[in-house]
DNA sequence: TTAATTTGACCGTT
DNA sequence: AACGGTCAAATTAA
């Protein structure tokens, strides 16, 4: 929520900067653009992180080192066990492609494409990615990317599993204790976020396309859903929207340049999203 | 030469 | 049998 609040504040700043001198303001506008992109990336990172944390926590609640093959289980909760196969932690979000780009913005992780399939009834194929460090570190994180039928600048991205890799690990010098079951490094994530927010690489500063022109959101409509799900969007132009429904449908919807919506699909009793946001 | 992508085959589910 | 996810050989990029 803190990160999302940042996005809210940036949007207000953008509105304030709206109709003034058009010279030094461009710098500020570019800054806000970068901030929003960085925020979006950090949200993606944190999202995949808390999903993993929730899964691990529930595993700890079971107090069994081997939760799946635990035969001596008494009914701890009102476990409406669904023994079906797909017990994967998924996290779907809708992402707008980078400015003019043909692929979704970088989400902070390094991926390696391993497949592409035509999907029944879909206009565009679905691409399959796995973490680059799968073999070096055994990171089993995976994602699927598919261009939306309606808007070809939007992509549906599904993250499956969480990263257990360390991004800056250049292959352990010795075969020391492999970090097989370590948590993702939150500190490095925050550090990366911090540097992204402060650095100003003048190199990649594309033209700004006044993203949020009207309907500034305040802390009043925060948390509700003034999501303007318009359909008259022009190419490359974003509009304000901020849908944030957690209690009922665990759906986040942004219209802030990058993330448009996110949904968490977790097996029953595995993760309580309301407790996370609390 | 190594690493990443492409692409049809393969295989488990439904 | 069809669908979708993954493998892996061939190809391309770094």
Characterise this structure.
It contains 5 helices and 8 strands. It is α+β, with helices and mostly antiparallel strands. Strands 2-3-4-5-1-8-7-6 form an 8-stranded antiparallel β-sheet, covered by helices on one side. Helix 2 packs antiparallel against helix 4 (186-198). Mean pLDDT is 57; it is low at 58-86, 170-258 and 267-278. The chain binds a DNA duplex (14 and 14 nucleotides) through residues 85, 112-120, 126, 128, 130, 132, 144.
Quick description:
By secondary structure, the protein is an alpha+beta fold.
Keywords:
alpha+beta; 8-stranded antiparallel β-sheet; N-terminal domain of TfIIb; 278 residues; disordered C terminus; WRKY_dom; DNA-binding transcription factor activity; WRKY_dom_sf; 27% helix; transcription; WRKY_plant; DNA-binding
What would you call the structural class? alpha+beta
Number of strands: 8
Fraction in helix:
25-40%
CATH class of the domain at 90-160: Mainly Beta
Order of helices and strands: HHEEEHEEHEEEH
- Quickly count the helices: 5
Query: Remind me, CATH topology of the domain at 90-160?
Result: N-terminal domain of TfIIb
Apparent shape? globular
Instruction: List the strand order in the largest sheet.
Output: 2-3-4-5-1-8-7-6
Mean model confidence by pLDDT: 57
Kindly, what is the distance between the CA atoms of the first and last residues, rounded to a whole number of angstroms?
A: 9 Å
CATH architecture tag of the domain at 90-160: Single Sheet
Largest sheet: 8 strands, antiparallel
Unreliable stretches, pLDDT < 50, 5 or more residues?
Answer: 58-86, 170-258, 267-278
Radius of gyration: 20 Å
CATH superfamily of the domain at 90-160: WRKY domain
Strand content: 15-25%
């Amino acid at each position: 929520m803190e990160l999302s609040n940042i996005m809210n504040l940036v949007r207000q700043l953008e509105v304030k900067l709206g109709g003034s001198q058009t010279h030094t303001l461009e710098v500020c506008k570019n800054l806000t653009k970068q901030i929003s992109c960085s925020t979006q990336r950090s949200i993606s990172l944190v999202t995949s992180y808390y999903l993993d944390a929730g899964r691990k926590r529930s595993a700890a609640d079971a107090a069994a080192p081997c939760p799946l093959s635990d035969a001596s289980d008494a009914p701890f909760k009102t476990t409406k066990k669904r023994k079906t196969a797909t017990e994967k932690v998924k996290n779907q979000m809708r992402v707008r492609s980078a400015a003019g780009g043909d692929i979704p913005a970088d989400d902070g992780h390094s991926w390696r494409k391993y497949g592409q399939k035509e999907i029944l009834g879909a206009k565009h194929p679905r691409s399959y990615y796995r973490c680059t460090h799968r073999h070096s570190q055994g990171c089993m994180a995976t994602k699927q990317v598919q261009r939306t039928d309606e808007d070809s600048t939007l992509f549906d991205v599904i993250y499956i599993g969480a990263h257990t890799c360390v991004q800056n690990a250049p292959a352990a010098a010795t075969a020391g204790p492999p970090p097989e079951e370590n948590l993702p490094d939150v500190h490095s994530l925050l550090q990366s976020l911090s540097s992204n927010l402060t650095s100003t690489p003048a190199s990649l500063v594309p033209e700004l396309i006044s993203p949020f022109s009207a309907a500034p959101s305040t802390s009043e409509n925060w948390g509700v859903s003034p999501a303007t799900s318009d359909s008259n969007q022009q190419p490359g132009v974003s509009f304000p929207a901020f849908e944030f429904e957690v209690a009922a449908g665990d759906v986040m919807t942004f219209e802030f340049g990058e993330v448009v919506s996110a949904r968490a699909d977790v097996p029953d009793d595995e993760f309580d999203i309301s407790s996370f946001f609390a």
